[in-house]
Amino acid sequence: MNRMQANLVLLLAAAIWGGGFVAQATAMETLGPFWFIGLRFAIATLCVLPFAINEGRRASQPLSERHVKGFLMIGLALFLGAATQQVGLRYTTVTNSSFLTGLYVVFVPAISVIFLRKAPHWIIWPAALMSLAGIFLLSGGALDRLTIGDGLTIICAFFWAIQLTLVGLFVGDSGRPLLLSTVQFAVCAIGGMLVGAATEHLTLDAISGALTEILYVGIFSSGFAFVLQVIGQRYTTAPQAAIFLSAEALFGGLFGALLLNETLTTAGYVGCGIIFVAMIMVETVPELLKRKSISAR
């Protein structure tokens, strides 16, 4: 898989996440946030586990202790990101949440520079800022007064950035993207159910009322889309992945307009255009500069 194909895989993951945002919000009408997290990731674990077992049978070498610890850390980052986002949705608007979650497009390259001492290609910085501006316009071009939910969503964006960065570090040299996905899902499922059992009341009626949302988010937004993310990141960098995954807000707005008859404002369409241009820049500018450098030799 080349880099362009990998980025298209990440774009597909963003489209699936965009379609699942409404399900995350409506599920909490009957189900607590942590039980929702636990159940969705339990389904995701069961969906991916057979493929991970088959991947292990074909693996040429066993996993190292470093990889196992890395997979567990990725799962913890994913759980903390999912938890802060899901709880935050109780106390903030969808507009604020969709914008603030997109802050990871700036956090990822910052983490690469500060903690990994690895500077991304210079085009990442303007593209990240353009994506952030596009998400802001797509969310309506305005933020309500910040609440505790907004603070939780900003923390969520930071954990998403950590998860993206760690996936980039471990998925390539481990050669086990499906096992990585299974481990991170299992960590989220266990964490969600433990916290849910301690803090939330669960009934069969609550599960039945949110079953459609649980299945969609569990199978597609969790099981399928996160696997696509992990596979795509084997062939591209974490900062580039963040740009393409930020299209989640773009697809969320488009699906809202198509499926829920929500109106996309003029600013929203401009935001979509800006995000699209940012993705094109990330994909084409490094390649064009590389070709120009080769031809100049």
Automatic annotation (TrEMBL):
Residues 6-139, 148-282 form the EamA domain. Keywords: Cell membrane, Membrane, Transmembrane, Transmembrane helix. InterPro entries: Diverse_Substrate_Transporter, EamA_dom, EmrE-like. It is found in: Cell membrane. SUPFAM superfamilies: Multidrug resistance efflux transporter EmrE. Pfam families: EamA. Coiled coil: none annotated. The chain crosses the membrane at residues 33-51, 71-91, 97-116, 123-142, 148-171, 178-198, 210-231, 243-260, 266-289. It is a multi-pass membrane protein. GO terms for cellular component: plasma membrane. The keyword Oxidoreductase does not apply. PANTHER family: EAMA DOMAIN-CONTAINING PROTEIN, OS03G0707200 PROTEIN-RELATED. This is Drug/metabolite transporter (DMT)-like permease. It comes from Gellertiella hungarica.
